[in-house]
Design goal:
heterodimer, A: about 80% helix, about 0% strand, elongated, B: mainly alpha, 22 helices, globular
Chain lengths: ~170, ~450
């Protein structure tokens, strides 16, 4: 049982990390796109709306897809005034209680409320409000439930890790 | 006690246990929305606004500048540009009165202007500059105080990330206040306004710090100046120019193009990121670039998860009627507008012990700013949102330096050698706190310090 759990957690963590790595390169692409926007506007005096929308798409994709990875890597900021002095057992308790009572309700609420919102957008294949904009607004909105799912999966990975370290220490 | 106030108290308590702040904010909000629904004081339909609010975060054009500034800051930090600046300045000014600490302060101001996250700049300067200061006979107290103060500067000197977030929040608060007052064509306040407003007070603080360092440094070092003056070679000056001119030029170009309205913050940030990558191109191989991008992504994720958590929080808090409660409480304080302002400043100062600038800008500012901005000043004029933003920024910067809870002090302790005792550090930061308070009072007494630059640039 534990073996299966661990293997699943490892696989999930690798997938989230791969997604995070991809976001790193998307970030570089965002820098390039933003530079092109500036170049087009100030050197050639043209505005490409689709290029500006592409920058927003990249920007949103980067953090929506990478936040789960950052959670597995424990990069989200905590207030550690008391955490510094607390025992490993107490820290683990905070982590699994937090996952169950904060992470899970928050992500379920975001996922649950965003499903009809996204479905509505898919029904009409919603595109940009501007004529020369990008056609994929429904895809951009789909990042919301995807984000909630990725965060839940990342929370699961952390829970499995907690069980494992508990098992090891006792 | 009403549920909204209970919610705030629970939030402060639960944040202390050390679960990630963003998730605590969002999760506890959902729990309290549930409790409120059970008690019949929260309408769950409100939660259906969640996706469109979060989609607003995803597509916010002001926040688009954050990832670009993160890349610019991390590239400048990782490419040893700070190290070169420090080395060059230290070699040249080592024997000038106060030369070393002043060099650290100036490099801190230049570097911190681009990173803008307290922890990052304090740790970087602590690792880079603290050993050198101690080795060269600067007292541990003065060295520790200098590094902590220099690292914390990045909060107020634009273009800093926290000023972008604060500017965005101030803009929302300002519009909300005007709409509430029945003004349906509201004036706007932009990130550029806040950058312009923070510039003079930021430079004032740097000037105060530098003057203090020169005054405080032992004159014995001055005796050496005469003969080292001649030993300063052209090479050393060239090294200094080489080290300082490119990053300073980059920051000035980025900031200047925003301030003079030539470029939007995200356009300027894009130029800044490309410029920083070009400056550092010889020092970054593929592996270093990849790890830099990954660290940037983590930092961006961290920032935006807080934005999302805070967005969930403010939706639920408003749904519980918290906004009116806060506004009523503020308006009933003795001392009118100034009384309310001072109470808010004290609360923010105390919160600064526990929360980072980001969380305060996102959680506390939207709660108090619309109510404060609606209160008239003594002369009957409306309060300037830029002035309020700058006051909050200086206030938080002071809070981050104040023992025993100041965040900067914790960050510095984590990288400081044992030679720097906690007591010495506390003693060392005290004068800087005093100078910050002088700056805070000056800006409070003369709002023009914050408003004259945006006024003359944008005529508002």
């Amino acid at each position: 049982m534990n073996g299966v759990l661990n293997k699943t957690a490892n696989r999930l963590e690798r997938a989230l990390a791969a997604l995070g790595g991809l976001c790193g390169w998307l970030l570089l692409l965002l820098v390039v796109v933003q530079f092109l926007i500036v170049l087009a506007r100030y050197v050639f005096a043209v505005n490409f709306l689709w290029l500006q929308e592409l920058a927003i798409y990249l920007h949103a994709s980067i953090f929506m897809l990478a936040m789960g990875w950052s959670l597995t890597a424990d990069k989200h900021v905590r207030i550690d005034i008391f955490r510094e002095r607390s025992s490993a057992v107490a820290r683990r308790r905070v982590d699994w209680l937090g996952s169950l009572f904060f992470l899970a309700p928050m992500m379920i609420a975001i996922g649950w409320t965003s499903l009809p919102y996204v479905a509505q957008s898919w029904r009409i294949y919603e595109g940009s409000a501007e004529i020369s904009g990008l056609p994929g607004l429904y895809l951009l909105k789909t990042l919301l439930p995807v984000f909630a799912l990725l965060m839940l999966l990342a929370g699961l990975v952390r829970l499995v890790r907690l069980i494992r370290t508990n098992g090891r220490s006792t | 006690m009403s549920l909204d106030i209970l919610f705030l108290i629970a939030l402060v308590g639960v944040l202390m246990v050390g679960y990630p702040v963003a998730l605590t904010l969002g999760g506890l909000s959902i729990l309290f929305a549930g409790i409120g629904y059970g008690l019949g004081v929260f309408d769950p339909i409100l939660l259906l606004a969640l996706p469109s609010r979060l989609f607003g975060v995803m597509t916010n054009a002001v926040l688009l500048s954050i990832p670009l500034f993160v890349v610019m800051g991390l590239v400048l930090e990782r490419s040893n540009l700070a190290q070169d600046m420090l080395d060059a300045a230290a070699r040249l000014f080592a024997n000038v009165r106060g030369g070393l600490p002043v060099s650290v302060m100036v490099v801190g101001a230049v570097m911190a202007a681009s990173t803008g996250i307290v922890g990052a700049s304090v740790v970087t300067l602590g690792l880079l500059a603290l050993p050198g200061l101690l080795r060269n006979g600067v007292s541990p107290a003065l060295a520790g105080g200098t590094v902590a103060a220099a690292g914390t500067l990045g909060q107020i000197i634009p273009p800093s990330i926290v000023l972008i977030v604060l500017g965005d929040q101030m803009s929302n608060a300002w519009q909300k206040m005007q709409l509430d007052a029945g003004e349906f064509a509201p004036e706007t306040v932009s990130v550029a306004d806040l950058f312009a407003g923070a510039l003079l007070p930021g430079l004032l603080i740097v000037a105060l710090f530098v003057a203090y360092l020169i005054w405080q440094s032992p004159p014995s070092q001055v005796d050496d100046t005469a003969h080292t003056q001649t030993s300063r070679t052209r090479g050393e000056w060239l090294a200094l120019i080489n080290a300082f001119v490119p990053p300073v030029a980059l920051i000035v170009a980025v900031l200047g193009s925003i301030l003079f309205g030539i470029a939007t913050p995200s356009e300027a940030a894009g130029i800044g990121a490309v410029g920083a990558l070009l400056l550092a191109r010889k020092r970054l191989n593929r592996a270093a670039l990849s790890s830099l991008l990954q660290d940037s992504v983590h930092l961006i994720s961290m920032i935006f998860l807080i934005v999302i958590g805070a967005s969930v929080f403010s939706l639920v808090f408003r749904g519980l009627g918290g906004e009116e409660t806060i506004a009523t409480m503020l308006s009933q304080l003795p001392g009118g507008t100034y009384g309310a302002l001072i109470v808010v400043m004290l609360v923010i100062f105390a919160l600064g012990f526990f929360l980072d600038f980001l969380e305060i800008s996102l959680v506390v500012v939207p709660l108090v700013a619309p109510a404060l901005l609606a209160m008239p000043l003594a002369d009957g004029a409306a309060m300037s949102p830029v002035w309020l933003g700058v006051l909050i920024a200086i206030n938080l910067q002071t809070s981050f330096l104040t023992p025993p809870f100041g965040l900067s002090l914790f960050y510095l302790r984590s990288v400081a050698p044992a030679q720097l005792t906690t007591i010495a550090l506390y003693r060392g930061v005290f004068p800087f706190i005093f100078l910050q308070v002088i700056a805070l009072i000056s800006v409070m007494a003369w709002p023009q310090l914050a408003t004259i630059l945006p006024h003359s640039l944008y005529g508002q």
